[in-house]
Amino acid sequence: MSRFRSLLLPTALAVGVGSVLAAPVAAAAPDAPAATAECDTTSAPYNYVVLYQPRTPQARVDAELTAKCGSRVAYYPEIGVAVASSRNADFADRIGVYRAYSGSREVAEPATSGAAAARAQARTELENEETTEVVTTTDLAAEQWDMRMIKAPQANAINEGSRSVTVGVLDSGIEPTHPALAHSLDPAASAGCNTGAPDTDPAAWAPTTSDHGTHVAGTIAGKDDTRGFTGVAPGVRMASVKVVNDDGYIFPEAAVCGFMWAAKQGFEVTNNSYYVDPGMFYCPEQPGDSAAYEAVRRAVSYSQRQGVLNVAAAGNSGFDLADPPASDPNRQHPVDSSCAILPKGLDGVVTVSAVGYEGTKSSYSNYGTRQIDVTAPGGDRAQLPPGAESGCTLSSVFGGQYGTKCGTSMAAPHAAGVAALIASRHPGIPPQAVSALLRAKADSVPCGDADECTGPTSYNSFYGHGLVDALAAVR
After folding, report:
1. Among residues 306, 265, 344, which one has the least CA distance to residue 430?
2. What does the angle CA 431 – CA 432 – CA 438 come to, to the nearest 5 degrees?
3. Does the N terminus or the C terminus of the chain have fewer Cβ atoms within 10 A?
4. 171: annotated active-site residue
């Protein structure tokens, strides 16, 4: 997941959406107030997520934003979230720091040099973990140990997935001409979301600086008979939903746009191999964070109510999600039990940890009691298949080529592909049921000798309910 941040489903199906709906919403905007000071017309503009009561009329939203020296980029009335642009340094103060937040402004103007250094270090660690290693072997099937681990070849012999099922790949874009992906990519369902507003121009959703989304897509539904490469569910459709900008950041407005697009397009599954930037944790009781947390939470909740199952990567920091650090590793603010990594920390999102070739937790993978739902192959450089030079997973990369990457970013699409097979096998079932079947059909993995792993074989902090099983999914 090059720079990407690389999610908890309650055991009882009724909990997911209900608990999401229980959270309070921000007050509606007052009648349009007059601007209290002259608006800045020369400084660089930044985008913000801004909270309103759901179904607040767009005219009221526009009036308040204009009065506070902002302008509307997008508005999602179903969830009461606007995306606004402003040049004013005090725009969030004018709106209210619990209602407005800009990730791009925080990156561009960090409070301290230490905050910038922390983000740079996090980027370096992720880039090192998910480096692409191009593979030139003519026949790639023998190198797909990850697919054999989850019994994907046997599953494909029974059911490759249905064309009526679409997986939205919320990522850096999918290379549309790649021989393994052209058959499954649906351009009409694809969009770029980096501004916070969906843009269906192919230039907005095609990849530019990162092949991360292309690699993820190949794992989900790739198929290239010439090279012998096959993903988990090659019969389903995929949509490229670009939420990663050219600097590798996924800001709150892009994530909101991505989940709302998935909902409105009727996707059955989304894959989210990232976490929302610039923080690692967002805290609903802290200024700024509150707006970002609530905006993404509402979008995720809405997508679930519209029938979307969201699958996400557990993260590559190697720590216990149930016992997070006291301070955010990426920016200097305190973290407590109310804080969450987005979107994986939200109700109803399926969180996937990673295992290597030997079937044990990858060294970098996050874990945690009641935090991990299932596990899947993400690779591990220390777990080498016999005769192999890389322990990472193989998939599609730029230029119609194939390469290996390691990361929970690579594990999540294996689970998303199996979820797509379940949705294909059981048309029309709700996302909570797909999630329940994904967990129920997983192969239990014991803790073994790992001291940090807690819980029984049937459900533990490293592997959740177990390793996803494609063959069980189609039976």
Report:
1. 306
2. 85
3. C
4. yes
Please say whether the beta carbons of 292 and 298 come within 8 A.
no
How many CA atoms within 13 Å lie on the side-chain side of 104?
A: 23
DSSP state of 443: B
Task: Give the Cα separation of 26 and 298 in Å (integer).
Answer: 11
Question: CA-to-CA distance for 104 and 102, rounded, in angstroms?
Answer: 5
What is the CB neighbour count within 10 angstroms for residue 195?
A: 18
| Active-site residue, from 409, 424, 435, 461 | 409
Tokens of 32: 């349009």
Q: What percent of the chain is modeled with pLDDT above 90?
A: 83
Is 414 tagged catalytic?
Answer: no
Q: How is residue 445 written in tokens?
A: 């993995």
In angstroms, how far is the first alpha carbon of the chain from the final one?
Answer: 32
> Taking a C-beta distance cutoff of 8 angstroms, is the pair 65, 82 a contact?
yes
The residues near 401 (Cβ < 8 Å, ≥ 6 apart) are 134, 135
Contact 176, 217 (CB under 8 A): no
| pLDDT the model gives residue 12 | 30
Token digits of residue 216: 């993820």
Going from N- to C-terminal start, the domains of the chain cover 15-20+116-474, 27-97
The H-or-E segment that residue 270 falls in is: strand 269-272
Q: Is-catalytic flag, 93?
A: no
DSSP SS3 for 417: helix
Distance, CA of 79 to CA of 298 (rounded, Å) = 6
Mean pLDDT estimate for the chain: 91
Q: How far apart are CA 38 and CA 276, in angstroms?
A: 33
Nearest 5°: the CA angle 239, 243, 246 is 120
Alpha-carbon span 246 to 430, nearest angstrom: 35
Tell me the two tokens of residue 373. Answer: 């739902």
**Residue 5: predicted pLDDT:** 37
Task: Considering the candidates 178, 212, 215, 333, report the single residue annotated as catalytic.
Answer: 212
Could you tell me which of 472, 390, 469 has the C-alpha nearest to residue 149?
469
Strands 401-405 and 393-397: antiparallel
Give the separation between CA 245 and CA 194, rounded to whole angstroms.
6
Going by the DSSP 8-state scheme, the letter that residue 210 receives in this structure is: -
HSE-CB of 102 using CA atoms within 13 angstroms: 26
Tokens 């925080």: give the residue: 106
The residue from 146, 171, 211, 289 that is catalytic is: 171
Distance (Å, rounded) from C-alpha 406 to C-alpha 215?
A: 11
3 falls in which pLDDT band (50, 70, 90)? very low
Q: Cβ(196)–Cβ(74) under 8 Å?
A: yes
Distance between CA atoms of residues 377 and 346, nearest Å: 23
